[in-house]
Design brief:
The protein has 10 helices and 8 strands. It is an alpha/beta fold. The protein folds into 2 domains: about 150 residues, HUPs (Rossmann fold), CATH 3.40.50; about 90 residues, 2-Layer Sandwich (Pantoate--beta-alanine Ligase, Chain: A,domain 2). Pantoate binds next to strand 1 and helix 6. The site of pantoate has 10 residues, from strand 1 and helix 6.
């Protein structure tokens, strides 16, 4: 069995995970659970898009055999008091910006992996830190499920697919490909031979500063295994960023070879 854990509001990014799972497993189980414990901001939890009927249709069309849509009480019954917390990997970037977020993610993913007992579980590379943290957790806890990483799926204009994109206004949506452009600008500097990580971070900041609708939260050029900020890029690295368009927070990343 292949497990595709989701929070619903399924888009092409999710269907690529389901299709990959379908190509590698006899049975594909998709879970849809908007996990309250991973939202550090309750208004973000309330505003998170939900459309179960449409999601179930998308799952079927992409090759899922089973859809698991538990209630909050089923996942966290009365008396629940366990938290799964990964260490240093959860501290920078998303962890610094969203206190408690990764504890919520690792707690629910540990529950879902344990319940499903799947051979493989599929996660998107857009949430690069989440992927690293989940891999670490599964390894540390001896969870046998293989964690499979799947590439970012983008709109034709370069915006990474995200359930949050549908909350952007028309003007914000038109401006949102700036994330991709900022990553591409840094990537171009890297391809031209630049190895000073601060110069790469600065080129992302400069590109973002041209767009008045965007409020950058962080830009990063980090070690892809530890997520510590680099001074020089001497091997593989991860460029990443989080920005806000009003109340909508978007992330994106680009690995450097
Ligand atoms: O990436 C997501 O959609 C969520 O963080 C996940 C992995 C389904 C856990 O709730």
């Amino acid at each position: 069995m292949g497990l595709v854990p989701t929070m619903g509001a399924l888009h092409e990014g999710h269907t690529s995970l389901i299709r990959k799972a379908h190509s590698e497993n006899a049975t594909v189980l998709v879970s849809i659970f908007v996990n309250p414990r991973q939202f550090n901001d309750s208004s973000d939890f309330e505003a998170y898009p939900r459309d179960e009927a449409a999601d179930v249709r998308v799952c079927g069309a992409a090759g899922a055999n089973l859809v698991f849509i538990p209630s909050v009480e089923e996942i966290y019954p009365d008396g629940f008091q366990t938290t799964v917390r990964v260490g240093a990997l959860t501290e920078p970037l998303e962890g610094a910006a969203r206190p408690g977020h990764f504890e919520g993610v690792t707690t629910v993913v540990a529950i879902l992996l344990t319940l499903a007992g799947a051979e493989r579980a599929y996660f998107g590379q857009k949430d690069a830190q989440q992927l690293l943290v989940i891999r670490r957790m599964a390894g540390d806890l001896g969870i046998a499920t293989k964690i499979v990483a799947c590439p970012i799926v983008r709109e034709p204009d370069g915006l990474a697919m995200s359930s949050r994109n549908m909350r952007l206004t028309a003007a914000q949506r038109a401006a949102a490909p700036i994330l991709r452009r900022a990553l591409s600008a840094a990537r171009a500097r890297y391809d031209a031979g630049e190895r000073d990580a601060e110069v790469l971070r600065a080129s992302m900041r400069i590109t973002l500063s041209a767009e008045p609708l965007v409020a950058p939260e962080y830009v990063s050029c980090a070690d892809p295994d530890t997520l510590r900020e680099l001074e020089r890029v001497a091997g593989p690295a991860l460029l990443s960023m989080a920005v806000r368009f009003g109340a909508v927070r978007l992330i994106d990343n680009e690995p450097l070879p």
